[in-house]
Write a structure and sequence with these properties.
Layout (H helix, E strand, L loop, with lengths): L1 H19 L1 H18 L1
Helix pairs in contact: 1-2
Amino acid sequence: MLLILAIILLIIAIAGGVIIHPIIFALAIVALVLFFTGRR
């Protein structure tokens, strides 16, 4: 469930973040890294 949510948020961040605000995209990358490192 969390993995699906993370993927959806990443897609939104790539589609909208790069166009609207690069900081949103950067935060999505950081959140995804923290998500994967937290599971291990």
